[in-house]
Design brief:
- By secondary structure, the chain is of the alpha+beta class.
- The chain is built from eight helices and seven strands.
- A seven-stranded antiparallel β-sheet has the order 4-3-2-1-5-7-6, sandwiched between helices.
- α1 packs parallel to α7.
- The radius of gyration is 18 Å and the shape is globular.
- The two termini are 30 Å apart.
Length: 233
């Protein structure tokens, strides 16, 4: 893929965040990696979605050096790079401050799997990371944020839970490319809203029965998945 094509795909993914009301002003960012070239394209730092153009996307290498672009990349770039380095199968990363998902992050709580909507897309809870230590905050903050995320996935498949909330901060999601990472950001916000309403109605609401959770996740994502049309001739 050419740099022009990579920038175009990342630009369109970033604009989809605005269309889905997942960001306001300069909040949030999306990136996509070209693993063959060893580069990612990412939104420039502090640029409003209303003013942004495809050519404004910044190309950086996996050492965070600018390869192409006249603007500074997103301040979250090191977090994105860390995720690409440690989650080998992902191709796109999205970061938002969407309202309900961020509320769970600010409460420093993982989102329980209350129902089948959640189970259709994430196998188990949506993890909230532990808080950063003062040393991490005062060190390489954005890199340490990425480390917090990958530490939370030491015993978990990132493909089975392509979304996380960073304690006190906000959500990150990922997927096979930038577009899918935005799709997962939209799903996360809706799941977070449903979970908030569930907790509001019943503070003692319990998690979905495991057999039902497994059924809903595996019928879409398991080796014998049968949801949708992809297996039809």
């Amino acid at each position: 893929m050419s740099y022009t094509e990579l920038k175009r795909e990342v630009f369109e993914a970033n604009m989809e965040l605005q269309r889905r009301a997942l960001v306001i002003y300069t909040f949030g960012n999306v990136s996509q990696i070209d693993r063959d070239k060893g580069v990612i394209a990412i939104k420039p730092s502090g640029v409003s979605y209303d003013q942004m153009k495809a050519e404004d996307m910044v190309i950086v290498d996996l050492e965070n050096n600018i390869v192409e672009g006249s603007m500074r990349p997103s301040s979250d770039t090191k977090t994105h790079i860390h995720l690409y380095r440690h989650f080998n199968d992902i191709g796109g990363v999205t970061h938002t401050h969407s309202t309900y998902a961020t509320a769970w992050a600010q409460a420093k709580q993982s989102i329980p799997c209350f129902g089948t909507t959640h189970a259709d897309y994430v196998h188990g809870d949506i993890t909230c990371t532990r808080e950063l230590t003062d040393a991490q905050v005062n060190g390489d903050y954005e890199l340490e944020t990425g480390i917090q995320i990958t530490d939370a996935y030491k015993d978990r498949d990132p493909k089975a839970a392509p979304m996380v909330i960073v304690a006190g901060h906000a959500p990150f999601t990922w997927g096979k490319d930038a577009a899918q990472s935005v799709y997962h950001a939209a799903l996360l916000e809706e799941i977070a809203r449903m979970a908030y309403l569930t907790r509001t109605l019943d503070q003692n609401a319990g998690a979905l029965k495991k057999s039902v959770m497994d059924k809903h996740y595996l019928r879409k994502h398991g080796k014998d998945a049968y949801y949708g049309q992809s297996n039809r001739g």
